Automatic annotation (TrEMBL):
Gene: dhaT_1
Gene3D superfamilies assigned: 3.40.50.1970, Dehydroquinate synthase-like - alpha domain (1.20.1090.10)
Pfam family, one: ADH_Fe_C
Protein name from the UniProt record: 1,3-propanediol dehydrogenase
PANTHER family, sorted: ALCOHOL DEHYDROGENASE, ALCOHOL DEHYDROGENASE 4
Any GO MF annotation of the entry: alcohol dehydrogenase (NAD+) activity
Annotated organism of origin: Pontiella desulfatans
Domain Fe-containing alcohol dehydrogenase-like C-terminal: 186-383
Family: Belongs to the iron-containing alcohol dehydrogenase family.
């Protein structure tokens, strides 16, 4: 047994924990770069908490996906204003932006020097500025990952700035912050949480520690995702999802992901698509293709047992089969109105370019088996159409 495990220096989890922000921020520095979305109603109280901590916050907003150009600009502005630490408050995109800006406050070379795939992928030479990550959605687990996913419009691809030092100083996870998520956001982020847990569980880079984390996360997300979707004010279900998202971040940061997220990067760069829904659109076909490929070409692959175990956890049934789990996933996707990829403008003519870009994606390296170009293309073809409602018994 041989593995490493790294995470945020401190994780603070629980309903109402946002009120601990002043104590957590005090001592990190003199001026906060406060990275947020655009919801002024939610941002105001947090801004006030930072003022109580005496950190003189300067607010910087992220609207939509963080682009490489926007991040470079914001980092330069934060340096000019004397910011020496970061508080990122928002969804996964905001937290990714915060981690990148924290890194660029102290590592001042061109951003392209640090980006994977399209850049030089060089390591940071200085520790990032301290960073507190506060998620307001339950999906990405970005508060405990060591990378920042950025969109490069010029290259039409999403890529990562990645380094172990980019793990936040504090991950502050308060499930109450997710109560206001509308159903469509609950679905998109929650499905992403499920897929991250599943892909990290069956990843070829998984280890016993990430396996345990994934098992607990899958159990909680499976029982509470649909509950949150139809009963958004259920704090117990929201707590399950916040914890499941945290587990997904812990796992993927140490075990990697797989083909679904390998596709998601190129698709997110080429089309205006919501990340979670794209992953959900790919889930059925990718899971089936991976399973069949291992049965045919690598029947001793240890991930096969994990596929069966994940099915049992998801269905809360010790006798559940892969077929039943796939049918259940189809039903969940239909109930949550997951569209096919064609809904976002993806067509058969785009498939060769997507496959070529996905081959270079870092997430593809964790897939439990190397898929052929024909198999990758087949996944995309099957995912163009929306899922058909299956025989799923949804957890109410």
């Amino acid at each position: 047994m041989d593995f490493e495990f790294a995470t945020a220096q401190r994780i603070v989890f629980g309903a109402g924990k946002l009120q601990e922000l002043p104590a957590l921020a005090a001592g990190l520095g003199k001026k906060t770069a406060f990275i947020t979305g655009r919801n002024a109603e939610r941002i105001g109280p947090v801004f006030q908490l930072l003022k109580e901590a005496g950190t003189c916050p300067a607010a910087f907003s992220i609207s939509g996906e963080p682009t490489s150009g926007r991040i470079a600009t914001l980092a330069a502005q934060a340096r000019e204003q004397g910011c020496d630490h970061v508080v990122a408050f928002g969804g996964g995109s905001v937290i990714d932006a915060g981690k990148a800006i924290a890194a660029l406050l102290t590592n001042t070379r061109d951003l392209m020097d640090y980006l994977e795939v399209i850049g030089k992928g060089e390591p940071l030479t200085e520790d990032p500025a301290p960073c507190i990550a506060i998620p307001t959605t339950a999906g990405t687990g970005a508060e405990v990952t060591r990378n920042s996913v950025l969109l490069s419009p010029e290259h039409k691809v999403k890529v990562s700035m990645r380094h172990p030092r980019m793990l936040p100083t504090v991950a502050l996870v308060d499930p109450e912050l997710t109560l206001s998520m509308p159903p469509e956001v609950t679905a998109s982020t929650g499905l992403d949480a499920f897929i991250q847990l599943f892909e990290a569980f069956v990843s070829k880079k998984a280890n016993p520690l990430t396996d345990g984390i994934c098992r607990e996360g899958l159990r909680r997300v499976s029982r509470s995702l649909y509950r949150c979707y139809i009963h958004g004010d259920d704090i117990a279900a929201r707590t399950d999802m916040a914890f499941g998202s945290l587990c997904g971040g812990l796992a993927l940061a140490n075990a990697g992901l797989g083909a679904i997220h390998g596709f998601a990067g190129p698709l997110g760069g080429m089309f205006n698509v919501p990340h979670g829904m794209v992953c959900a659109a790919l889930l059925q076909a990718t899971t089936r293709t991976n399973y069949d490929a291992m049965i045919q070409r690598d029947p001793q692959n240890p991930a096969l047992d994990k596929f069966h175990e994940a099915a049992r956890i998801m269905m809360q049934d010790e006798n559940a089969t892969i077929e039943q789990a796939l049918e259940h996933l189809k039903g969940i996707a239909a109930q949550m109105f997951v569209p096919g990829l064609s809904e976002y403008g993806v067509s058969e003519s785009d498939i060769p370019a997507i496959v070529e870009k996905a081959r270079n994606a870092s997430s593809m390296k964790g897939n439990p088996i190397v898929l052929t170009d024909e198999e990758l293309a087949s996944i995309l073809e099957e995912s163009l159409a929306p899922p058909v409602d299956g025989d799923a018994t949804l957890y109410l």
